[in-house]
Amino acid sequence: MALSAAAAGEVRRRGCCGGGGGSLFPEESFKSWSAYGRALLETGPRLRERATARSLDSTELHEVRGRSGADMKRNLTWWDLIWFGIGAVIGAGIFVLTGQEAKEAAGPAVVVSYAVSGVSAMLSVFCYTEFAVEIPVAGGSFAYLRVELGDFMAFIAAGNILLEYCIGGAAVARSWTSYFATLLNHHPNDFRIHATSLSEDYSRLDPIAVVVITLICLFAVLSTKGSSRFNYILSILHVAVIAFIIYAGLSKAKLSNLTADFAPFGARGIFAASAVLFFAYIGFDAVSTMAEETKDPAKDIPVGLVGAMTLTTAVYCVLAVVLCLMQPYAEIDPDAPFSVAFTATGMDWAKYVVAFGALKGMTTVLLVSAVGQARYLTHIARTHMVPPCLAQVHPRFGTPVNATVVMLAATAVIAFFTDLGILSNLLSISTLFIFMLVAVALLVRRYYVAGETSSSDRTKLATCLAAIIASSVATAAAWGVGSGGWVPYAVTVPAWLAATLYLQLGVPKARAPKKWGVPLVPWLPAASIFINIFLLGSIDAKSFMRFGIWTAALLAYYFLFGLHASYDTAKALAAEAQAGKVEEGVKDVVHAGN
Q1: Which of 11, 87, 240, 285 has the fewest CB atoms within 10 Å, counting from its CB?
Q2: Which Pfam families does the record associate with it (predicted)?
């Protein structure tokens, strides 16, 4: 039954569709314990409705964005985005994980590992770019998945996105402490508190990481444009240090260090390192969350995202080669590889330049991460899957203050306790999973439009997607198990090729991008799905256990809170829309009578 205009006004007044509300959950299901009990009893029907509910581009661009009250300021250009991209990506990964993976997993072939991870990241960049141009909102991949895969998958991805940012920020903050210690001629643990009563992986408490995160939070809250200027000043200094490392490192190069035993751990070591080194590329997705603040998304986002990733991949590969030319891989230090390498080659003074550059790089990574993660949480809060007070944009600063503070507080807690090794592996799982979902969503966007795509074409699309994912999982499983020789791949890889080819030739496209699109569809998105799943197969079992625990916690939250809050919000929106139609009809009748 349609609600009256007055009733719809009451819905708006309650805050169900606004950015705030008098309590954490202002929706109808949480008005009282009895209302909450009734909502829990309706979990099954509500889940069936919301699991497949898909948003619209226009809804994300207008109605959902409007729930933040004030608008974010549109003052970023492609130049800002390139520097944000460089600042977001080049940090702890290259300065810390390069040494760890070169020594323990790949040897000098770590450069190939970086190239593999770079290809995977670039494929994901293409997918993100098309979505960011078509749906330029702060929600990033959460908004894209809500439009194409529905509320439930978007929420699961959202939880992993938030985990990705918290863990990534925590890992970089702990690495910041390590290089700060190097700069002062100390061991990193000299600045950490050893809590012997805690597990070894969580016993080195890091107060410096907490202080750094707090300062970054202040920058991110005050101004996005100011953060951008600060970021590219630091990034320019960072690039200058990288140029110094390359020049000075090559002056101490020995070709025999690189060629004597290029891949001592074989192909398995190369791909295992690639899965961990994907951590080094994480951050570009934060740039896509700034689409809402760009002046011309159709031009600025493709140039900014693709340009930043191209430069980053080239820099990573060159730096990896330089490191392996300076020292035999077995002598590379896993904690501060470049600093120790310069000391070993007689340039002890250069380690201070490296440490300074590493600190600059990690600071920009933390800053861009802070800006990106707050915008993700803001858009998630706009849908009421988390408390809507987190969606508020400060009218003076034009930034999401509540979301920024909450995310960085969580990051600080994780950084205070948790070891870098645990963080990097868990982060890679979460990120690869999200990037795989975005590639699937892009294929759905190109080949399916509700109300237009026939049921037979929809079935063909679903079958092809299932075959692409299943063959990718089977390939990753065969690689992870490490038995059977080439026989499993002779089945799984042709199956992937056949499914992708049939999708290209046997299923008509339902939509073409309006402004900028991924080339070679369906091949590039399908390749992104394959390589992301394949790299997942190279990550250790304990990390998957932690990922499973986190996913179970997400599901518990969704069934107890998120599902009911988003259900009430959707109903309130529908009531408002219906009330608006009734109101317009009354006006038409009045005008006709006059």
Answers
A1: 240
A2: AA_permease_2 (PF13520), AA_permease_C (PF13906)
* C-alpha span between 587 and 594 (Å, rounded): 11
- Per the CB < 8 A criterion, the answer to whether 116 and 270 are in contact is yes
Per-residue DSSP letter, 204: E
Which tokens in the block code for residue 117?
């991870």
Which tokens sit at 110? 């770590």
Q: Residue 55: which of 118, 142, 121, 185 has the closest Cα?
A: 142
- Point out which residues pair with 69 in neighbouring strands: 393
pLDDT grade, residue 226 (50/70/90)?
A: low
Q: Which helix (H) or strand (E) holds 366?
A: helix 350-382
Q: Which of 123-137, 285-299, 305-319, 432-446 has the lowest mean pLDDT?
A: 285-299
Query: What is the three-state SS of 121-152?
Result: HHHHHHHHHHHHHHCCCCCCHHHHHHHHCCHH
Other beta carbons less than 10 A from residue 405's beta carbon: 17
Overall average pLDDT of the 425-445 stretch: 85
| Nearest of 417, 410, 20, 397 to residue 218 by alpha carbon | 397
Q: Compute the Cα dihedral for 183, 184, 189, 191 and give only its sign.
A: negative
The token pair that represents 287 in the structure block: 């740039």
Q: pLDDT tens across 381-406, in order?
A: 888 888 888 877 777 767 778 888 88
Tokens of 427: 């982060």
Over the range 463-477, which residues count as b (16 or more CB within 10 Å of their CB) and which as e?
ebbebbbebbbbbbe
Q: Are 594 and 38 in contact (CB under 8 A)?
A: no
CA-based end-to-end distance of the chain: 29
Quick one: pLDDT band at residue 175, thresholds 50, 70, 90? confident
Radius of gyration of the chain (CA): 25
Burial 440-460 (b: 16+ CB within 10 A, else e): bbbbbbbbbeeeebeeebbeb
CA–CA gap between residue 561 and residue 548 (Å, rounded):
20
| CA angle centred on 494, ends 541 and 479, rounded to 5° | 20
